[in-house]
Amino acid sequence: MTGLQDRLTSEQVEEFGRELDAIRQRIVADLGEADVDYINRVIKTQRGLEVAGRGLMYLGFLPPFWLAAVASLSVSKILDNMEIGHNVMHGQYDWTRIPELNSKTFEWDTAAPGDNWRHSHNYLHHTHTNVLDKDRDIGYGVLRMDPDQKWHPYYLGNPVYATLLAIFFQWGVWFHDLEVDRIVKGELSWAETKEVRRKMRAKATKQIGKDYVLFPLLTGPLAPLTFLGNASANLVRNLWAFSIIFCGHFPADVESFSEEETENETRGQWYLRQILGSANITGGKLFHIMSGNLSHQIEHHLFPDIPARRYPEIADEVRAICEKYGLPYHTGPLHKQLASVAKKIVTLAMPPKGALRALVGGHTDRSTEARQVTVDAQQDSSRAGIAA
């Protein structure tokens, strides 16, 4: 945990907040036709890639065409999830009043129902970013991603759980909304999840039916190849989304906070927490588009409802403000951030210093105590015999 109050004085925090507010106000005032044209171009490209991928599957008996189909569908799914779905559902284009870009009704091509995700992500995650026991994205209820999460032998499987989560990421996000960890703790009853489960079933049925029943059947005798192609495209999308999201939230230098630290938080303090609890990934223009501009996770956490295409143009300004106040601005290439995340996953699988010793010591103490009880009983028996 870090001490937010130790970073800057109250006056500095508020001035820091005003400078970031000024950036936001400037961008909001400048939103217009160029932003609408951009998202429409991305949507048109995504739809074109999906149509191309579905069409190429009819030639899937030829390996080059099957690979081209998988590549086309993979990019289509990545764009739909990252640059379109994630950003539209954040309300980044609500100002346009275009029905297809309405954050409250938009649905994406992934297992997680839009309504469930809007609650767990837009509200819980972005309000309580990196606040332990409040931000359920810390470890997704599966992983130990913070040293202040109480260690349990279960977490020895951290690397295995992380690998499975990466492979089945869309289903991990789908399952995440059920809040099983809270049900286990008794904080939430099964009956209270009825509506969430209804939406989960409906969306899962739709996704499975589309990718693994309808489209394979449409290709007739090539159905097995189409099934495999769709599964491969989903796998590529899952691995990519997992990598980008985890690199924005869990590299080594990213910090977490306690609930006490964030009580009565001002706007400036909220901004400060976003800076300290996020990391960027360096790359070129295409890389940023494919990441949904979540490669600018710092800017996204600061301004989640501003069109993500604007993050690159304000990144240098945000970084300069951080330098002015002596604050870190975590950033690095994808391979470096991935290595940092992987190291954290493995490191936090291990018990803290003394925990394993205490665990083993507890068993030793109990064994010693049991042996002592046996010795005492034998001595009592001997003394009783002598007395007799």
UniProtKB/TrEMBL annotation:
Region (Disordered): 363-388
Domain Fatty acid desaturase: 65-331
Recorded coiled-coil stretches: none
InterPro entries membership: FA_desaturase_dom, Fatty_acid_desaturase
Signal sequence, renumbered to the chain: none
PANTHER family: ACYL-COA DELTA-9-DESATURASE, DESB, FATTY ACID DESATURASE 2
Protein name: Fatty acid desaturase family protein
